[in-house]
Write a sequence for this structure.
């Protein structure tokens, strides 16, 4: 069973006092127009949404992504640019270059640093990158996309950590790292695919038990589409999960 920890804590960093959504990144707006439009629905408990143009910001501004990002920002939704750290293989210069293109072209309010390393040995280079991005953003939001529990030192270098990203079959038996109990749920994000509608309540309970403040659950599978493909489209029970979490405030 999941390790049980206290969830009597507020979600101040995400701008909401309850569980809310972090959208890992829908498919391109031309392919998924309904998904992008849904994110501007008033009252959706949305903490942020990730814009991934072409495995990053791309080589030039994309007019369709410019329009989608602009609508979200005008609706008060925080948009994060997707930057792949390739588990520590990308250079500092490449990361900063991606960040500047996202800021210059799409006016993002932060970044999801995906495939982030988890080991203590990699922490200094991640700290250097996040410190630089914080200075560039001047108050923006940084999320480290580990996908598993990293060394606890990573909690000190970003606003949020993705401590689970994977399948429901793994999530339902997952264990939370004990060190996370020293932090409020606003610090932790869970992305789970393949969650059946009949197990949605159970998934919500696990998120709360494990102290996650930001989630994205979907019944879509990664079969034949790759891991991130499972998050390309709306969950089949989107309206239900929005109602279950309740009205929220976008930031």
């Amino acid at each position: 069973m999941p390790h049980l920890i206290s969830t009597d804590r507020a979600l101040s960093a995400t701008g909401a006092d309850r569980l809310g959504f972090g959208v890992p990144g829908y498919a391109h707006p031309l392919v998924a127009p309904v998904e992008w439009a849904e994110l501007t629905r008033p009252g959706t408990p949305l903490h942020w949404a990730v814009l991934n143009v072409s495995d990053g910001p791309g080589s030039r501004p994309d007019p369709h992504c410019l329009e989608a990002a602009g609508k979200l920002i005008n609706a008060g939704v925080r948009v994060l640019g997707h930057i792949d750290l390739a588990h520590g293989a990308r250079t500092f210069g490449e990361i900063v270059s991606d960040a500047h293109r996202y800021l210059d072209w799409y006016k993002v309010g932060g970044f999801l640093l995906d495939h982030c390393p988890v080991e203590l040995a990699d922490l200094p280079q991640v700290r250097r990158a996040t410190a630089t991005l914080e200075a560039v953003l001047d108050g923006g939001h940084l999320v480290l996309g580990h996908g598993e529990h990293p060394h606890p030192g990573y909690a000190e270098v970003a606003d949020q950590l993705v401590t689970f990203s994977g399948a429901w079959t793994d999530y339902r038996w997952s264990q939370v790292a004990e060190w996370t109990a020293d932090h409020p749920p606003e610090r932790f994000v869970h992305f789970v695919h393949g969650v059946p509608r009949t197990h949605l309540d159970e998934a919500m309970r696990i998120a709360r038990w494990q102290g996650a403040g930001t989630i994205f659950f979907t019944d879509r599978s990664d079969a034949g589409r790759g891991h991130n493909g499972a998050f390309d489209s709306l969950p089949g029970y989107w309206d239900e999960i929005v109602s279950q979490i309740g009205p929220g405030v976008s930031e």
